[in-house]
Amino acid sequence: MAKELATREQALPSEVYELMDDADTELIISSLAGKVIERYIYYLPDIKAYGLSVNGVEDACRYMAEHGEFIRVEDMPQVIIDEKGCLANVIARRFVKDGKTGDLICADTALGTKYELRIKKKRDDSTWEDKFFREIAVSKAARNAKGKLILEEIKVKLIEKYKKLTGKTGELRKTPPPENNRIRDPNLIKIQQFKRELIGLGVWQGDSEYRNFLENNFAGDRGEAIFSSKSLSDMQKTEAIDMMVKMKSEVEEGEVEEEKPKKAIEEKLLNIRQLKQSLGEIWQPRMFKNLSPGGADKIIHGLEERLRKKEGQ
After folding, report:
1. pLDDT (tens digit, 9 = 90+) per residue, 120-167?
2. Residue 268 to residue 296: CA distance in whole angstroms
3. Cβ partners under 8 Å of residue 199, min gap 6
4. Where do the DSSP E strands lie in the chain?
5. Is the model's pTM score more than 0.90?
């Protein structure tokens, strides 16, 4: 059973470690945004192993606490920020309860460290700025420190538990399917196109929010959460396209509706300016800074009345 366990302390292939680390980044950002994704373990088919996610590490700490062992981190982590990112160092300690006195005794200590880049690279070599790089560095350093103190049998037990539950496992592959097995699905092409457009419009901040969209709206044959476009059925792909078209349309219509009143008030202000100039009065734009369309109409009506009287004299 232990052969199936993959931990970050092992000499994992760098690609596999990066996959687990990137997946944890998504979980941490979602948590900071107030959305908890219940993904506790990762399956790594390339090395045929399972590993605990950042959420799984926290759950393991809770499990140990229920059985009389407590893992705690020091209140003040060491944080060093430079122009490229943030280095965080976190110390965690494992305490056991004295059977006679009930006092907590420190049984082990571990240091967790993590350097998190501010500017990150996607798989297509494009870059994006991570606004949460400090928080992520501290969270991952704490994850690494706690992970060193979790007993291996606890890790194995929790992995077995979550393997039996749907929607709790994320599958991470470091190698794509062979090129000759790929099918150019026109619906997948449309989905990718709309995904890029919605990210460009600001509906989603990036791939992680797109995966949240899939998770919240679609499920697999056994009810497990879906995180990849390729896991969608043909019917679900069509449904996803319809939803994305609607989202794009709503955003674009919203921009048009916002632009209409702005343009209307600008035209009214121009009309007021021209009328005041015709009356020989000074134009003071700051007086009309917060003018509503209805208020502008009243002013225009009054100025037009005064101009008619002036011209009738």
Report:
1. 877 667 788 888 899 999 999 999 999 999 988 999 899 888 888 866
2. 6
3. 205, 206, 210
4. 41-44, 49-52, 69-73, 78-81, 85-97, 104-117, 119-121, 127-129, 169-171
5. no
Question: What does the alpha-carbon distance between residue 271 and residue 299 come to, in Å, rounded to a whole number?
Answer: 10
Q: Residue 51 to residues 155, 247, 283: CA-CA distances in angstroms? A: 8, 36, 70
SS3 at position 86: strand
SS3 call for 44: strand
Domain boundary, last residue among 130, 159, 175: 175
Structure-token pair, residue 53: 């996610």
Half-sphere exposure of 287 (CA within 13 A, CB side): 8
The last residue of a domain, from among 128, 148, 175 = 175
Q: Work out how many domains the chain is built from and give that number.
A: 2
In a domain, 111, yes or no: yes
Q: Which has the closest alpha carbon to 244: 202, 200, 277, 197? A: 197
Within a 10 A sphere around the Cβ of 269, how many other Cβ atoms?
A: 18
Nearest to 45 by CA among 63, 24, 71, 19: 19
Residue 43, Cα to own-chain centre: how many angstroms? Answer: 21
H-run or E-run covering 176: none
Domain that holds residue 168: 2-175
Same domain, 171 and 269: no
C-alpha to C-alpha distance for 27 and 200, rounded to whole angstroms: 22
